[in-house]
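Review form for a predicted model. The reviewer records the input and the model, then writes brief findings.
Reviewer: anonymous (R2)
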Amino acid sequence: MSIPEFLLEVSIVVMAIVSLLSNLTVLICFTQSTEIRSHVPAVFILNLSFSNILLTIINMPATYLGVAKNANPFEDLLCQAISFAETFLTTNALLSMAALSMDRWVAVMFPLSYSSKMRYSDAFLIVAYSWLHSLAFSLPQLLMGWGGYSHTYASCTVHMDGKHRSQLAAYATFTVLFHCSSFALCLFVLCFAYLKVLKVARLHCKRIDVVTVQTLLLLVDIHPSVKERCLLEQRKRRQRATKKICVFIGSLVCCYSPYVITRLLELLPSMHIYRYWGISTKCMSYAKASTDPFVYCLLRQQYRKVLVNVINQILRKDLYSLSVNSTSSTLDTTEDNNIPRVT
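Model under review:
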């Protein structure tokens, strides 16, 4: 085993563990908090988490075995099924991220009518469309036999072997449409929605800044340290929304764009993709499944509170069980000592 292969295997294992634990944590928060369940975006987050968990369970181990064995670790039918799952789950996850961004756009642009524009029934319809959209690409891939083991990516993915070279034009069209209607569509929706949200957030910050400055001018006797703290809070408020939006869009671009660009470049007849680069871009796309829970959920205060409550409940149960065991053992010892000895 070479050093690059060892590093790739380790990275896949680490990403799989982090992705599984973090996405399961999101599901635990969903089940333990009625406040989280009452919000409409929770439907999209639930759909995203389930897609990431299935991708972690099905596709990441398959890629790990492909890297370790340096060959197809499964039979052709099973590999085609894994490839079908990858196309469906990846598209569903990307559309879920687009739905979350549109939900934020509606909430910011139409705050008074948000509850009527985005209801639970609307969210379930969007999720149903996401599934149908995903099936619209994964089913043709399965029927046309364009799923299988790719040595370049060491995984069961969208791939056309030498038997179907006569379908090269159709396969190229399918690949371009697939990435345009999944990654490119998601990126466009995220940029449109979050840039609009950023524009509104900056307008609100300007209004708040004007009020703050006027208040500071009126309060002549205020301590200089208080003024400095208020101005510092102004600067933080301006940067907070920008940082969040950069994380939303930047995580998508950094994780998916190398893989998508590589898949499009390999359609060129004279283009040869090196195996280590192909596997690396595949691992980067898997990294999105491990970062999504932190980007959309676990770093928010609402989810942190639920996690703290869950941990406290577990610790209380452990402490209670320990105290009960210690009390029972003490009673048993006392009873033994009180039994009269027969001489």
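Findings: The radius of gyration is 27 Å.
Further findings: Residues 168-218 form the longest helix (51 residues).
Recommendation: see findings above.
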